[in-house]
Amino acid sequence: MRALAKDPARASTLAREALRMAPGHPHAILIEAQALRRLGKPRAAIAPLTDLVRRQPGLFFAALWELAQAASESGEAERAIAALETLTRQQPKVSSGWFLLAEQLRKAGRDEDAWRADLSGVHASSNDPELVKAAMAMNAERLDEAAALLEAKLARGAGDPPSLRLLGEIHWRRGEMDEALAYVEKAIAMAPGFDLARSFLIRLLLQNNRLEAALEQAEVLDRSPMKGPGNALLKASVLVQLGEQERARTIYEALLVDQADNAQVWQNLGHVHKTLGAQDEAVHAYRQAVTHAPTMGEAWWSLANLKTVAFDANDIAAMESALETLASETEARGEDVFHLHFSLGKALEDAGDHAASFDHYDKGNRLRRTMVLHDADDFSAEVAATRDTFTAPFIAAMGAGGCSAPDPIFVVGLPRSGSTLVEQILASHSQVEGTMELPEMMIIASRLQARVDEGEFPDFKAMVSTLTPTDRTRLGEEYIERTRVHRQSDKPLFIDKMPNNWQHVGLIRAILPEAKIVDARRHPLSCCFSGWKQHFARGQTFTYDLAEIGRYYSDYVSLMAAYDIAAPGAVHRVIYEDMVADTENEVRRLLDHLGLPFEPACLEFYNNRRAVRTASSEQVRQPINTRGLEAWKQYEPWLGPLVEVLGPVLPAYPGVPAGI
């Protein structure tokens, strides 16, 4: 057998010698057939293997496996299928037989049967002790041990889709995204019916913001003969991220025909209705969700987050009862609990009970803070490094470079600063397309920062200094290309409303020198308190502690002030209170900065029916009002930690403290 693997010609010679001495010896016939296949003569192996299968029960499985492979390599798919169907009936727990059968069925055009064979192979692999051992090691966070087991296993065989998928997950857990994608893609290339691997691949693609590729894979998954709501839900989530809300809504409504009590689907449908501006339908969907799942905290928060729903005494009682129910359960459901606290905070705020309201907001924030990572010291250090890099001399020394596309308008600032209002005003202009909070610039910035974190450069400034004009042009072009998927019109300009991009104003101007930057700013207490009482679906990890959000606001003011000095006029500032008090003049100033003619539609932004995904989606569908300007004053007795951290930033607003 050692000769067969290393020198099949030698194995063939030895087998023929054995057959001369013992004609018809079954093991010698099998070895010779195996050698012939390895020597590229599979057709010659078919006849002796067929005879062995028929008359040698002791070699039945080995001969049948070789016959299947020889027939496959000879292009005789039907003969291979017949052999493999017999083999998998007799040995259903051997995954390799199922995967080879799937391959042959696919060659024969029997795609659905092939898909089912792949799924059977995946199921059979659960009996593989090596795979189980590797999975247990991975789940125990012994990632190196798990990877070594799988790599050794793969080295012994031509292919093993479940091992490839598991190895991909190990790389993902290590944060090695490229490697993770490569392994999972290889797994589904070998077993296209491996639904769990394809589902995992879609999630990896979403994490990498490769939305078009994710949708392509989701379309394939949706065609799986193993129909399940999970596949449709995953496709809908991809469509939502692509901004195709109507298609997502169709999927959710179809699912509810057969699953009218599915609270998760009702909630997702509510999100789509909210984004599309169908408020009554959103309220109905969220109400259905909490009817079918009274402890579903996110659905209660989704109702509260509309900002226009008034909870009554029955709602408050229902939420308090839900908290009691959750408290009595043995398994913690922290997400439901903090969502309910945020919801009760909003309900009691509307009812005028500000002390009780603050108590619930505080409990929700404290619990949520335990679930997120945010290091205020590290963040302040990053901001300081950026501030010390993009000085006037440094910007001058960089010279020309970057992509000259004028398309992007970056609206930056803190969450709850009025940035969605600015976006809605601009998106009502005939030359400007509103998209959403796009992650592309943050992805580029994170990739550059990783070069510092991994030791390639001693600090941020050294890294940025190495970017040549060509490098900066390439990065700018990458941003334009990556954001193209979000543009659904031929308007020349588009808005990127990712608020956190204030951290990257220097980088934006370096790689996209013709892009415009608009800074939306709101009173520190108004902005920070509004952000603190807002639960965000993702990100914004600095908002769950009053002191930390105040420190973040101060870092923001410091960096933007420094950039105003380094590049005067590069950033246009919109003060929220000024926009509310003198809307038309502020809109005209904004459009002038962008080089756009005034259009009355910008003053009637609330009539714009575009999809809006942020927490302010319903507020920007109403005319400007002053209701929220001083909401923080009702909570002033409890805002001491925030006031203290803001320090001189607070009295200087809307200006900035001297020397900051």
> Reading side by side through the largest sheet, how are the strands ordered?
2-3-1-4-5
Main CATH class of one domain: Alpha Beta
- How big a fraction of the residues is strand? under 5%
Radius of gyration: 31 Å
Q: Can you tell me the CATH topology of one domain? A: Rossmann fold
Outline: elongated
Describe the biggest sheet? Answer: 5 strands, parallel
Backbone structural class = mainly alpha
Low-confidence stretches: none
- CATH superfamily of one domain, called what? P-loop containing nucleotide triphosphate hydrolases
CATH level-two architecture of one domain: 3-Layer(aba) Sandwich
End-to-end distance, in Å?
Answer: 77 Å
Question: Any overview of this molecule?
Answer:
This is Sulfotransferase. Keywords: TPR repeat, Transferase. One of its GO terms (molecular function) is protein-tyrosine sulfotransferase activity. It contains 35 helices and five strands. With 660 residues, it is mainly α. Among the domains are: 90 residues, Serine Threonine Protein Phosphatase 5, Tetratricopeptide repeat (Alpha Horseshoe), CATH 1.25.40; 276 residues, P-loop containing nucleotide triphosphate hydrolases (Rossmann fold). It has a five-stranded parallel sheet, with helices on both faces. The longest helix is centred in the C-terminal third of the chain and has 21 residues. The mean pLDDT is 90. Helix 9 packs parallel to helix 11, helix 12 runs antiparallel to helix 13 and helix 23 runs parallel beside helix 31.
